[in-house]
Every structure is written in C-alpha cells, then in structure tokens.
Amino acid sequence: MTRLIDELKKLPGIGGKSAQRLAFHILRSSDDDAHSLAQAVRDVKDKLRLCSICNNITDVDPCTYCTSPTRNLRLVCVVEEPTNIAAIEKTRHFNGVYHVLHGSISPLHGVGPEHLRISNLTRRIDKNEVDEVIIATNPTVEGEATATYLSQTIKRAGVKVTRIAMGIPVGSDIEYADEVTMLKAMEGRREL
Amino acid sequence: MTRLIDELKKLPGIGGKSAQRLAFHILRSSDDDAHSLAQAVRDVKDKLRLCSICNNITDVDPCTYCTSPTRNLRLVCVVEEPTNIAAIEKTRHFNGVYHVLHGSISPLHGVGPEHLRISNLTRRIDKNEVDEVIIATNPTVEGEATATYLSQTIKRAGVKVTRIAMGIPVGSDIEYADEVTMLKAMEGRREL
After folding, report:
1. Minimal C-alpha gap between B174 and chain A (Å)
2. What's the complex ipTM?
3. How would CATH label the architecture of B2-47?
4. Going by C-beta distance under 8 Å and a sequence separation of 6 or more, which residues neighbour residue A103?
C-alpha cells in the first residue's frame, strides 16, 4: 500500500492526501478495474510511439491524421507539442495534417534548433509533398524564434510558409489588449 | 456637508463611506484646492466638446490629433469609444488620425447604425481626404456588426477599408485560445 501511495505521489498535482485517497479507491475497486488501470499504464509506454511522418504521439504508425483519406496531406501545420493539435482540431475547419516539433528554441534553457524534430518535415518538403506550411508555434519569444528559424530553413521555391495571426482574441475588448498585441493587430490588419 | 456626500455618492465606485472620507478631505483642504476642484468639475462640462472632424472628446476644436502636422490625415482609424484611442496610441506606431463612433451597433440594446456618428467620416471620404480606413471596433458581436455595416457604407473606389487582426494575443499559448480565436488566427495567417 505504501508503495502505491509513493508512486501516485510522483504524479503532477497529486499530494500525500490525494495519493492516499486514490490508493484506497484502487484497493476497494474490483480486480478487473485495478488490472485494466495497471494494463493501461503499461500500454502507454509499450504501445505509444511517435508517428514517423509527423512526430505526433500515436498507437499506430503512421498516425491517423497522416493516413486520413479526407485530409489534405500537402497542407502542414507545425506545432510545438502534441497537445497543441487539439487546440487546432477544435476549430473544426483545419483540413490539413500536422508536424510536431516537440519543443521550441530557447537559448535560456539550452534548447537549440538541433533539439527540435525538424528533419522529417524538411524531407517531406524536399520530396515536393507540401504546398503550404502553417507555423502555429506559440506567440511567445521562444515560439517566434522557432517560427523565424523554421521559415528560413524550410523556405523553398513552391512552398508557401505562413504564420498564424496574432491579434485581439475574439470577444475581447481592445481596451484590455497589451500594446504588443495591439501593435500586431494593427500590423496584421486585413482588407475587408 | 450632507449635500456634498450625496453628490459624491453618485460617482461610480464611491459608496457612503468613501463619499464621507472624500467630503471630509475636501473640508479639511485649503480654499484654493477646493476651488480648483470645483472649477475643474465645471470646466469638464463647459469646455469639453466633441471634435467636429473626428468626434473625439477635446477642449480645442478640431482636436490635437486632427491638427497635428506630424500625423497622416489620410489614414483614419475608427474606434467605438474615445477611450479606445489610448489603447492604440500606446503602441507608439500608429501615425494616422481617428474617428470615434461613440458606440457600436447592438439591436438587442436598440442601437442601430443611425445612433452612431458616421456622417463626418463619410464626408471626409467623399471629399477624397482619406486613403485607408482601419476599422478598430472590438472583436465582439457588436463590433463585428459595426465593422461590416461600416465597410459596406464607406467603401468607395480608391479607399482601402481594413480590419485589425483577430488572433492569439502575444505572449499567450495556443493551448488557451478558444476555438473561434484559433479559427481566426488560422484564417488570418500571413506569409513569412
């Protein structure tokens, strides 16, 4: 019992009290439930891997996005982390595929371009499999540095490289916009 | 004394206790201070008016923006309220002039286009005094309705009508973007 509590405590946001409560819940649950939890934990490490095309976390390789017959494989959206894909999927209007960098350039944290997974993207571009690359890294210093580096690296004749818009969030008030966001919103204005 | 407290209580965010504290402060202050406060309150109503060119609140007509020799009078940024001008000025990169609508179209609150101050803007455009109109109304339902109405009303040959960018705020994470903002950020992407 103490060992389970200790293991649970290693999880983020789980303190001693929570770990104890979870451990007692598992103790009281049926054998089946406990076994399927144990199996699920094991499977995550055994069965999940990175998609060889886009680096997304997947249980089948290539992942379901990269093999979808309804998606435009020539439109690639680059994100920092696998979780970012969900943010773009929920718009329900993106019909292309993804490329996951697994990080962003951050000299302060010792992360350079060589630590990002870029090679399989450049390979796709070199094989002329891509029309447009949308860089959807975060609008932070690290995300912007990554976007700049990436655009310089992957820009080729015939490949369009675009950056998602920075600006005022929908439903917000320009009164509450910080000056950098307001500036980006002015610079990024579009003709009506 | 009771009359002053009652008058102060009418101000937004000033309750009974605050009004009392303010009233006692005024009572204890010098004659000069009390008089200049009274004069300032009177002057606000007596001397401030709307600029006849841009509808901004001003003590000189036309306002200092409209008569500035260093500003581009042919680039007009349309805002809902006079306070919005400050949000754009703090970017320190906007060099044009303004037009204040004093509201936005909101059928739910009974505000139609006829309640907005648009006529002096269309007059400026008709006299061929404008190259570009940047519509910087809020990215809300009302602000968007106003932008659409305005763009239909003021669009003329030779006048560019643009809308400020909606998207992810600078320094934010795409993880926290709502789906409409994320969609606008994808739609509004720009070539690098």
Report:
1. 6
2. 0.71
3. Orthogonal Bundle (1.10)
4. A80, A81, A111, A115, A116
